[in-house]
């Protein structure tokens, strides 16, 4: 598989350079049973096809670019086939008013067909569903930069169903039976109990949306006696991530920081995403840090780690005289921060050594299963590639590795702090 830069530069053309996709509310309402991968795949396919939904009977996208955009960087085409098969087997149902106020009900498979041939994915929508997906009057804007942050299919389903109401501030009341359908858990006896639905679906989904998306949601309940019969979600914009709504790329592409990223080999979409998430100032600072390291094996990965994990510029020798003239209190604070950072690096190194020891003590079959389980949860293509190359020694994935093993073997790091 080519590098991320090659795929982004050579394959993500036309509509794929946009960061958001129009998603019809009727279609959103019936896709609750999709897995996280299928849901992301559905949105990317729609983004790719949107401009030609009504004019072309089928659509094509490079399979490697498709995997990149959904955060699945693998040569394992069976996973992609399974996800496409799921879309073809999932029924979309809509019930809405037409332009004359008449009720219209319809049903269609999400994809009428899909096929993979010579590295290209070809797929199509039924004419009736294509018309609904393209309807400019009733749609929600699903931002793929936001979508990429989700790790739960239920959270992404709730986000899609809430985001279209951000301007009205509330979803309105949904019957609990309808809500279970939206979340894809209708038919499950376990989730017939509201306590389980709240603990396993509602609370975790709300927490993930509020932590990583451009909206903040809060559930409210209507009861009859002690039984919860209806639910609605209050919605407001998340001011910290509101920039995702306006990222159309043109203004960003004219900036010096964007040009430096492209010169370093960062693709268009990733460059705009980093600038949106971190701001031009912070990206410029990290660029200077990476460029100051001299010749590194992979500047792109190095920069990704610097932005994500907060690597800072190394103290420069020419700055030493200046520090002598600065406020002694400020110098003491900086020295304390340096000691804290050094201690944290030491603790992380010790924990990674314990991970390597624990992995080595397992049977070969178990070791392979652990690696596959961890790799399946990596959403970033660079992270996945780095883990394939370095395994549990992957510095880019250190935080995720430690969290994974803490859950896999509770207490594994006891005694190290």
UniProtKB/TrEMBL annotation:
It holds the Pfam family Rep3_N. GO terms for molecular function: DNA-directed DNA polymerase activity. Gene3D superfamilies: Winged helix-like DNA-binding domain superfamily/Winged helix DNA-binding domain (1.10.10.10). GO terms for biological process: DNA replication initiation. Residues 21-162 form the Initiator Rep protein WH1 domain. Residues 320-347 have a biased composition (Basic and acidic residues). Residues 313-347 are annotated as: Disordered. Belongs to the initiator RepB protein family. This is Replication initiation protein. It comes from Amaricoccus solimangrovi.
